[in-house]
C-alpha cells in the first residue's frame, strides 16, 4: 500500500519526535545507584526514551566528546580542572568524609595537617595523645583513631587523598563496621573517627575542619561544601554539549529536582543547597 504525501509527512514528524526523545546518559558509578531509579521514573512519566550507563568519569567524558552520549554526570576531584570550556556545566552533588569525636571531647575544630598527624603513617606531625594536640587535662589520654565508612563509600579514599595524598594509615587506626562506629565513639571519649555520612547519635559531634593553620574552620553543611569551605569533598557535575541545551532541559531539571536531591541526602551524599538548585533551575529556563 502506498502512503500519501500527507502520511509521509506524518511519518517524518513521528521519526523526528522519536529521535528527539532518545537521550543517552552516562552517570558516574560512584552515585549511579542513587540517580538511575528517579531518572527512569521521570523518563516513564514523560515518555522519554532514556539509556543510562554507569561508568567512570573519564570514560564518560571521552564518550561525550565523541558524541556517543548526550549527557554525563561526572566526578571531578579537587585541584582538577572542570571542562567548562568544552561543555555546559552544572554543579550537581558532593561526597565528603566526615570526622567525628565523642560529644564530651573539648575539641570542636581541627586542621588538615593535624588530622594527618592523627591518621597518617608518614606525615609531618605524629600525634598519639590528646595532650599532643594541646587539650588541657587530656595529656595522658591516647588518641584512638577509627575508620567506620560504608563498604560502597569512597570516604576513606577521599580523606586520604585530601589529607595526606593517599599515603598509608597508621597501624594504630582501627577499621570498624559502620553500624558500630557511632556506639564506639559514644562509649569512648578518646576516640576519633572517619565517617562516610553525618552521625545520628547525640553523643557524637562532627568536627569543623580548616585547610591550614590559622584559617577558619568549617563544618560539612550543604553551603560550606558547595562553596568549597569544607575541604574534604568530591564534586559531581552535569556536563553536556551546548548545542543540546533545549533537548536536555527536561532531564537536567529532573537531575536538579527535589526527588533526586532527597534521594542523594538519604544515601549520605550532599545535594546542592536548595537556594542554589532553585537559581539554577530558573537560569535553565531563561537560557532558551
What does this structure look like?
By secondary structure, the protein is α/β, with parallel strands linked by helices. Helices cover 36% and strands 22% of the residues. The chain is built from ten helices and 13 strands. It has helices at 5-21, 32-46, 57-65, 112-119, 155-164, 178-187, 222-226, 249-255, 258-266, 274-286; strands spanning 22-28, 49-55, 71-76, 88-96, 98-102, 109-111, 144-147, 174-175, 191-195, 204-206, 208-210, 233-240, 270-271. The strands form three sheets. Strands 2-1-3-12-4-13 form a six-stranded mixed β-sheet. It has a five-stranded mixed β-sheet with strand order 8-7-9-5-10. Strands 6-11 form a two-stranded parallel ribbon. The longest helix has 17 residues, at 5-21.
Throw out a few tags for this protein:
288 residues, alpha/beta
In one word, what is the shape?
elongated
Distance between the termini: 42 Å
Strand content: 15-25%
Taking the sheet with the most strands, its summary is: 6 strands, mixed
Given as residue ranges, the uncertain stretches (5+ residues, pLDDT < 50) are 1-20
Order of strands, main sheet, comes to 2-1-3-12-4-13
Strands, total number = 13
Order of helices and strands: HEHEHEEEEHEHEHEEEHEHHEH
Helix segment tally: 10
* Radius of gyration computed on alpha carbons: 23 Å
What structural category characterises the helix and strand content? alpha/beta
Mean pLDDT equals 90
Proportion in helices: 25-40%
